[in-house]
Design brief:
Layout: E1 5-7, H1 12-17, H2 19-23, E2 26-34, E3 41-48, E4 53-57, H3 66-75, E5 81-84, H4 88-98, E6 105-107, H5 108-116, H6 123-129, H7 157-168, H8 170-180, H9 183-202, E7 204-209, H10 213-217, H11 222-231, E8 234-237, E9 245-250, H12 253-262
Length: 265
């Protein structure tokens, strides 16, 4: 179980504890939210060094809130590497909801692809690949029953443990990936990481309702994964899972039309 420090106010004690974030050359990052992305809300921002993990409660805060402003100075600092697993929705949510532009990202999914040729790897599989344990809480899909899981307050110990565990081991993955990559792989991974930060936050997005959910998703997500690859879009099931509402990120009207046709519209 990861040890963490919960920060809900940027008081004097918190500022003293957070000095280590400014002193670190690399920070692991994760974001939890309600329907994470530009149409949702950011609930928690987790930052971790090798030694310490911090969980920031930012639900309902404005872009000018002191805690959000502190996070902006950290996450927009180009001199610090931000280690994120699949940064696309994190980047999108931070930019559109809190006005924070991520800079200098090491996307562990992009690095995994450059090292192994395997794309769209999940965090569970990534940790296993690197010989790291997977917390039992990570195996539970809390969103199937409650899409607003991260909107509950007060935060429970189980919620905080889940949030901290998600980010705590990314520093180990970062070090392993740097050690394993040759110069060409590192260059490809770095370029892919930069593209991942920019793509989702620059893309257009809209809601699409799916008529036949099972056929659209397919066995273990096979159909929706194939559609994403074919159209070069991103699609995420959002809102109450009993409703077939998806957010689609796209670049062209033709891409969106193909997705809508597959959705039965």
């Amino acid at each position: 179980m990861a040890q963490y420090i919960l920060i809900a106010e940027l008081d004097a004690g918190a500022r003293e504890a957070l000095a280590c974030l400014h002193a670190s050359n690399a920070l692991a990052l994760d974001v939890e939210g309600i329907d994470l992305g530009r149409f949702g809300a950011v609930s928690l921002v987790q930052l971790a060094t090798r030694a310490r993990t911090f969980v920031f409660d930012v639900l309902g805060r404005s872009r000018t809130d002191p805690l959000v402003q502190f996070l902006r100075t950290v996450l927009e600092n180009a001199g610090t590497v931000k280690v994120v697993h699949d940064c696309r929705m994190d980047s999108d949510a931070l930019r559109h909801c809190l006005g924070i532009e991520l800079r200098n990202v090491h996307d562990t999914a992009c690095w995994h692809a450059a090292l192994t040729g395997e794309h769209e790897v999940g965090l569970h599989a990534l940790l296993q690949h690197n010989g790291l344990p997977v917390a039992s809480a990570r195996r539970c899909n809390v969103y199937a029953k409650n899409h607003a899981f991260w909107g509950a307050r007060p935060l429970t110990g189980a919620m905080l443990e889940r949030a901290a565990n998600d980010v705590a081991q990314l520093a180990c993955v970062y070090e392993a990936q740097l050690a394993a990559a040759d110069a060409a792989q590192a260059a490809r991974a770095g370029a892919a990481s930069a593209a991942a930060v920019d793509w989702a936050r620059a893309a257009q997005a809209c809601w699409v309702r799916v008529r036949r959910q099972r056929e659209f998703v397919g066995c273990s997500g096979s159909e929706v994964k194939a559609l994403r690859a074919r159209t070069r879009t991103l699609m995420y099931h959002r809102g109450d899972r009993a409703q077939s509402k998806w957010v689609v990120y796209y670049d062209t009207d033709a891409q969106l039309a193909t997705v809508r046709a597959a959705a039965g519209r």
